[in-house]
């Protein structure tokens, strides 16, 4: 283990540290200050979809930094408009307007406010095991991490994922929105069923509630579609985005259908949609489209699944995979295995106490996935 970093002297320690000091990234590789190389199967928790230090994003950032860094939302801006156009053209056809912010939890906060402002209601229905963020509004809609911060924002309640009967019973005249992940990431890489999402759309429409889909982790080609909505043909009223949107530059967005009706002044963001982040976002999206990263994620996910399941370790209970969003559920706690993987040069994530989650850059090479598969077999 390296010497403690300068950061460790000053940081308020809210993160469980892994004990390595990362100083550089390239593609699907990360490099520590002691000269070690790691295959990154975390990608900044699903951020670096186009790989670390992507040249297209670097050029966009450099060019924009020489032109204009910040521009508040009270003025129009060309970079902002270009990114919004790209997002709308690639999203489900119900979505026509865009609010830009700085993170996934900010996009969820905005979506909750927009739903309340539109409907005049306060109730929010979300799924058990779901994760929507750590700020107080988003945390109110999140199943874990709540206890020491209660009382949270009232009106949120939880139902089991894929239980149509419980959903039907929960949505009433006080419900502003139902908010769901297409695939629960933090909750163990657990997909929603098509029937459940269809029912959610129908119930919300029938009862005057809005349907919010949280694609903060699944968006931008991660699951083998540009958005995971494509796998189910679901049409949300609001779509929450972040993580992979801008190649590693902090950004979030809420895409809205015509059912969303808010007035000026209802919400805002000082840094949301700043030209620098927008330029990075447009460059990242263009790279995804040009290099067909959705198709690549689908192919590489199948490649991983075929290779890993040829000889499944005894400690594995189940493999759940959609594109390059992979959950390996174990028969025991995952944390010791994550440390062993790190020692062998593989960075992976937990997703609940017994699940190893892999979210590698979509630019990862097959030979790197072979190395990951071999390390998993040895470790597990």
Describe the model:
- This protein has 380 residues and is an alpha/beta fold.
- The chain folds into 2 domains: 56-290, 3-Layer(aba) Sandwich (Aspartate Aminotransferase, domain 2); 295-324 and 374-380, no CATH class.
- Helices cover 34% and strands 20% of the residues.
- It has 12 helices and 17 strands.
- The chain has helices at residues 6-10, 43-46, 55-65, 78-90, 104-119, 136-140, 164-170, 194-207, 275-290, 293-309, 335-343, 366-379, and strands at 22-26, 29-32, 37-40, 95-101, 123-127, 156-159, 175-181, 183-184, 190-191, 210-214, 238-241, 252-257, 316-322, 325-330, 346-347, 349-350, 355-358.
- It has a 7-stranded mixed sheet, with helices on both faces.
- α4 (78-90) packs parallel to α9 and α10 packs parallel to α12.
- The longest helix has 17 residues, at 293-309.
- The two termini are 23 Å apart.
- The relative contact order is 0.17.
Dominant shape: globular
Biggest sheet details: 7 strands, mixed
Any idea what the CATH architecture of the largest domain is?
A: 3-Layer(aba) Sandwich
The strands making up the biggest β-sheet line up spatially as 4-12-11-10-7-5-6
CATH class of the largest domain: Alpha Beta
Strand tally: 17
Task: Give the terminus-to-terminus CA distance.
Answer: 23 Å
Let me know the CATH homologous superfamily of the largest domain. Type I PLP-dependent aspartate aminotransferase-like (Major domain)
Helix content: 25-40%
The third-level CATH topology of the largest domain is Aspartate Aminotransferase, domain 2
How many helical stretches?
A: 12
- Mean pLDDT score, rounded? 96
Structural class: alpha/beta
Order of helices and strands: HEEEHHHEHEHEHEEEHEEEHHEEHEEEH
| Radius of gyration over C-alpha positions, nearest whole angstrom | 20 Å
Overall tally of structural domains: 2
Low-confidence stretches: none
Taken as a percent bin, the fraction of beta residues is 15-25%
């Amino acid at each position: 283990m390296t010497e403690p970093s300068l950061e460790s002297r000053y940081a308020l320690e809210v993160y469980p540290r892994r004990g390595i000091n990362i100083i550089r990234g390239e593609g699907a590789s990360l490099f520590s200050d002691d000269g070690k190389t790691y295959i990154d199967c975390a990608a900044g928790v699903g951020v670096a979809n186009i790989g670390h230090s992507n040249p297209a994003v670097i050029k966009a950032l450099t060019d924009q930094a020489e032109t204009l860094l910040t521009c508040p939302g009270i003025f129009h801006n060309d970079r902002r408009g270009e990114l919004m156009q790209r997002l709308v053209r690639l999203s489900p056809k119900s979505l026509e307007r865009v609010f830009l912010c700085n993170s996934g939890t900010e996009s969820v906060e905005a979506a909750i406010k927009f739903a309340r402002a539109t409907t005049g209601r306060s109730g929010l229905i979300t799924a058990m095991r779901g994760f929507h963020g750590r700020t107080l509004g988003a945390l109110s809609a999140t199943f874990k991490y709540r206890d020491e911060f209660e009382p949270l924002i009232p009106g949120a309640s939880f139902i089991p994922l894929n239980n149509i009967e419980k959903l039907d019973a929960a949505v009433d005249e006080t419900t502003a929105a139902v908010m769901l992940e297409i695939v629960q990431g933090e909750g163990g890489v657990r997909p929603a069923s098509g029937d459940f999402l269809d029912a959610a759309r129908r119930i919300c429409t029938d009862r005057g509630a809005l349907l919010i889909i949280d694609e903060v982790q699944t968006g931008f080609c991660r699951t083998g579609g540009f958005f995971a909505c494509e796998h189910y043909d679901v049409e949300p009223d609001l779509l929450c985005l972040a993580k992979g949107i801008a190649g590693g530059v902090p950004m979030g967005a809420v895409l809205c259908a015509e059912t969303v009706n808010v007035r000026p002044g209802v919400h805002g963001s000082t840094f949301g949609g700043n030209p620098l982040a927008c330029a990075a976002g447009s460059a990242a999206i263009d790279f995804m489209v040009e290099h067909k990263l959705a198709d690549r994620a689908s192919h590489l996910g199948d490649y991983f699944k075929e290779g890993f399941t040829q000889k499944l370790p005894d400690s594995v209970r189940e493999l759940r995979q959609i594109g390059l969003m992979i959950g390996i559920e174990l028969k025991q706690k995952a944390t010791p295995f994550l440390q062993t993987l790190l020692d062998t040069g593989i960075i992976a994530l937990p997703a609940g106490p017994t699940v190893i989650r892999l979210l590698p850059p979509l630019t990862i090479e097959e030979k790197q996935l072979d190395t990951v598969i071999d390390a998993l077999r040895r470790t597990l």
